Amino acid sequence: MEFGIIGAGLAGLACAELLVATGHSVRIFDKGRGPGGRMSTRRIDTPQGQASFDHGAQFCTARHAGFAAQIADWTKRGVTAPWPDAGPDAHVGVPGMSALVADLAQRHDVHFGTLVKGLVRDPASGGWWMVIDGNRLGPFDAVIVATPAEQAAPLLSLHAFPMAREAAGVTSDACWTMMLAFDAPLDLPWTVHRATGPDATIAWAARNSAKPGRADPRSGAPDCWVVQAGAAWSRQHLERDATDIAGLLRDEFTALAGKALPEPLVATAHRWRFARPASRSAMALWEGSLRLGACGDWLSEPTVEGAWASGQALASTILARAKAA
Ligand SMILES: Cc1cc2nc3c(=O)[nH]c(=O)nc-3n(C[C@H](O)[C@H](O)[C@H](O)COP(=O)(O)OP(=O)(O)OC[C@H]3O[C@@H](n4cnc5c(N)ncnc54)[C@H](O)[C@@H]3O)c2cc1C
Fold first, then answer.
1. Of 96, 109, 232, 271, which has fewest CB within 10 angstroms of its CB?
2. Is 133 within a domain?
3. Which of left, alpha, beta for 220 (phi over 0: left; psi -120 to 50: alpha)?
């Protein structure tokens, strides 16, 4: 079958991996400018060279056998490396978190910068078309929606009400993220700070430059930090202007550091409106009569590992049902 996949995050790509390995063909469409999704790496030019920030997922774990095997392969090929600062089972992409997604994306037919606005099905042939800026792409024998739940619901709603209802029932926490870079290494006694309570303004702060494979600030590269606000604070400030948020989070980071900080080279805030959904156990959705499916972290757990497992689970379900038919 020829599959069309909407969303080239880790879930969509993990699904594509298994489908292609079993002889199916896959075309993937993503509205983003490049690989990453919520595992993106932002690069910003400064007078001291490029500053680089993992402004979505900070690291991943590999607690399930399938994903552990994937991490082992990536580590062997230098795509990931352990990052003990975040815990004994923490792994990061090299040179950025987006490396994991980029590695899978380059093996498939992925079209970035392509926002899919809707789906149309021809009832006679059962074929699917994707609506893209007034044009149609297709036909596809089957379509997989691999976007966050809030973006999946409108795509599914005209065709599969039960699937759309599942997606519409999900609410994700937002996350305001601050990227800070300094011209010399900050003198702080810690590399990673995690909040102890759910209501903290800063949930996470870490020296991005301390991750393996990043440019070293001790050799003159910018010292890059990522600061993530807590879910409650992010929700409360969701519609505030990014410039205001940058000012507020900079003040909070200074308070956390406990001393005055130098003027930053970069101080930019990014809003993740749908950062992390609540955990679910469905793993994936597949409506065989329509040849329409959905995967993503919103169907498993809100982690890198959860997204990968959901994509693989969807492909396994499709293959098992095809075999049984
Ligand atoms: C701030 C933040 C911190 C996090 N920290 C961690 C962490 O430390 N560890 C961890 O394990 N996980 C973390 N996560 C969660 C992790 O990033 C996600 O669980 C995982 O990346 C989800 O992958 P996905 O493929 O399901 O979705 P996504 O990565 O969101 O991919 C979906 C893709 O769909 C595309 N898309 C959406 N709508 C359309 C459309 N209509 N047309 C075309 N394309 C579309 C998007 O551009 C996106 O690329 C964090 C997430 C955030 C936001």
1. 109
2. yes
3. left
